[in-house]
Structures are given as C-alpha cells and as structure tokens.
C-alpha cells in the first residue's frame, strides 16, 4: 500500500472519467458539481461514512477537495500489510499519519485510532501523535501497537488527560510516575502487556467514573479490588504464558457484569464479594491442560460457588465439560 502523498492516496487506482463515454462523463461531472455546492461541514459529514482511506481518494476531484478528507471527525489509521513488517513500508505509514495530522485545520477530533506493527525507532512518532490527541482534547483514543516484540512506553502527557472518555491500549507499557488524571474516563481497555499490581491499583483509584474495564492477555497483577460503584463491567482474558502470576483475586461488590477467561493451570482464582453481580460468563484459556487436574477442578468449583446468585450465568465449553466429567454438585 502506498502512503506517499497526503493528497494522492490511491489516486492512481481511481478512474474519475471514462475516456469513451461522454454521457457518463457528464453525469459524473454533474454529481461532483452538486456535491461541490454543499458547505464543507456537510461534505465532511458525507465523507465520514466512507472511512479515512476511501475518503482520501476524493482529493483528486479538485483543489477544494485536496485536503477536505483530513477534516473527518474520526481518524482511523490501519496498517494492513501482510508481507511482513518491513521498516520501509511502516515508515511510509508513519509519514502518512504525520502528514494527515499536519494537514488538519479543525481542532475538533472525536476519535483517533492507530494500528500498526510498532518498532522502537518510532517511539517519538507515537509520542507526537498522542501529544496531538491530548492538545486537541480527543475524547476517544485507540492505539494497537502489539504486532511486534517491541513495547511502547506511554508518554507522561497521557496521564494528565481530563477530557479523555475512552482509551484502548495494546502493547503499551504503563509506568505512571505522576498522578493519573483521567477524571472523565468511562471505558478502559489494556492488552498484551506487563501490568504490575501497583499500576492496576493506581489506575483504579484515579478513574472515578470508569464504567467498563477490560484486561486482555496482561500479566503481572494478582488482585483486582474494585470499590467504585460506577465500575459495572469487567472483562479479564488471562494470559497463558509463563509470566502470569499464579493467583488472581477479584473483589468487586458493585460489579454487574463479569467476563472471565482464565488459564486454569497453576492459576488459583478467588472471587470475593460479588454481591451485585447480575451477569457472568466464564471460560478457560489455553489447550495444554487436562479437565481432571486439581487446579482446574478447584477453579471450576470457585466459579460455581461464588456465582450461584447471578441471573445470567454462562459457562464456556471447557468449564462445563469439567462439571460433566466430574458430575460436580455444589
């Protein structure tokens, strides 16, 4: 994929006018003229339904259209190459993101998404993008940098972001040395990274209106003590690598919904005070365990005993199979 010029993305693959059909050409010209008569705000709204990549193709329509696509209220950049992680292709993608942000005139941006195979040499670029998001008070930020073995360390400015409402980070190390100011954050997703217990505790204590928390393939923490009455939804997808801790306790008296995928070998589960829980879904991660292992039996028993009161209890295939094989009754 060519990410060369801001105004030229995909232009070589687009045929605006037919060389042989004058009637068709006139129809296309008339359609473009009618669109051109609309105010910028309405044209931008129409372009927003195309997505960033397709909207960028409209830059070939004329001078007015050259940079209009960059004003979309949601910017979503995805690196979709399947032919490896060649640094040159990634560099072109990074340059395209920079050019798009530099082209924008509007300061309003609702959502900012970047997904690409991160390498350490691009750390300053990611810093700049997140600085852009913070300065422009973007409400929703989604960064997936987990396709490689390099981890990005979240820059300091991201911890002071009062206007942020939704944050999703994959492959990003959280190491806050200052107070976290996420007063408006309602949704937080963290995945594919080491997440020490101290960081978990700091995050939970500094997000007063957090409603939904998702931790997927993270390791390093042993306890989720959730005392906020606002945090109603919790999703934990356990990591099955050797770095996972061997104990997980969840204490959440106000939690309404729990989705837990646990690696049941050498990982003891303790559920404490889930008195407000209404909906629960449990499954086991990984494939290298036997349903008759003591750890598996113990975890299954823990789940059943502590969720008997919920209105909606869903067991995945694996824990249900354990119950059937053992004919467990609690």
Notes on the protein architecture:
The protein has eight helices and 15 strands. Helix 5 links the parallel strand 2 and strand 3 (140-144). The relative contact order is 0.06. It has helices at 22-36, 40-47, 52-56, 87-103, 123-135, 197-205, 294-306, 317-326, and strands at 74-78, 111-115, 140-144, 152-153, 166-170, 172-173, 187-194, 212-219, 223-225, 233-238, 247-251, 257-262, 268-272, 279-284, 312-315. The protein has a domain at 222-330. Helices cover 27% and strands 23% of the residues. Pfam families: LRR_At5g56370. Residues 126-261 form the F-box/LRR-repeat protein 15/At3g58940/PEG3-like LRR domain. This is F-box/LRR-repeat protein 15/At3g58940/PEG3-like LRR domain-containing protein.
Beta-strand residue fraction:
15-25%
Order of helices and strands: HHHEHEHEEEEEHEEEEEEEHEH
The mean pLDDT is 80
User: Uncertain segments of ≥5 residues (pLDDT<50)?
Assistant: 1-20
Helix content class? 25-40%
Structural class: alpha/beta
Number of helices: 8
Biggest sheet layout: 10 strands, parallel
Q: Determine the oligomeric state from the structure.
A: single chain
Cα-atom radius of gyration: 24 Å
Q: Choose one word for the global shape.
A: elongated
How far from one another are the termini? 57 Å
Extended strand count: 15
Task: Trace the largest sheet across and list its strands.
Answer: 1-2-3-5-7-8-10-12-14-15
Domain F-box/LRR-repeat protein 15/At3g58940/PEG3-like LRR: 126-261
Protein name: F-box/LRR-repeat protein 15/At3g58940/PEG3-like LRR domain-containing protein
Organism: Cuscuta epithymum
């Amino acid at each position: 994929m060519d990410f060369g010029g801001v105004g030229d993305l995909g232009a070589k693959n687009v045929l605006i006018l037919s060389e042989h059909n004058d009637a068709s050409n006139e129809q296309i010209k008339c359609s473009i003229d009618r669109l051109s008569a609309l105010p910028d705000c309405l044209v931008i709204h129409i372009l927003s339904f195309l997505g960033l990549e397709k909207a960028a193709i409209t830059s070939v329509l004329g001078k007015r259209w050259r940079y209009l696509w960059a004003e979309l209220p949601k910017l979503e950049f995805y690196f979709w190459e399947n032919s490896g992680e060649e640094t040159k292709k990634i560099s072109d993608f990074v340059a395209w993101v920079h050019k798009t942000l530099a082209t924008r005139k509007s300061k309003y941006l609702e959502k900012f998404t970047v997904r690409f195979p991160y390498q350490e040499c691009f750390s300053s670029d990611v810093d700049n993008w997140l600085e852009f998001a913070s300065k422009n008070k973007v409400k929703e930020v989604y960064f997936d940098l987990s396709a490689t073995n390099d981890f990005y360390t979240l820059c300091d400015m991201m911890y002071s972001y009062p206007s942020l409402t939704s944050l999703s980070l994959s492959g990003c190390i959280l190491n806050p040395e200052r107070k976290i100011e996420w007063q408006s954050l309602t949704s937080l997703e963290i995945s594919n990274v080491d997440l020490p217990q101290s960081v978990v505790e700091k995050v939970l204590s500094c997000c007063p209106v957090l409603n939904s928390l998702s931790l997927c393939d993270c390791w390093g923490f042993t306890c989720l003590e959730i005392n906020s009455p606002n945090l109603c939804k919790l999703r934990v997808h356990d990591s099955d690598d050797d770095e996972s801790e061997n104990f997980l306790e969840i204490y959440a008296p106000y939690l309404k919904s729990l989705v837990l995928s646990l690696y049941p070998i050498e990982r003891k589960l303790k559920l404490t005070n889930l008195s407000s829980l209404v909906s629960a879904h449990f499954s086991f991660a990984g494939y290298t365990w036997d349903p008759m292992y003591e750890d598996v039996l113990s975890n299954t028993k823990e789940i059943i005993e502590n969720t008997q009161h919920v209105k909606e209890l869903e067991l995945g295939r694996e824990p249900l199979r354990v119950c059937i094989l053992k004919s467990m009754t609690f």
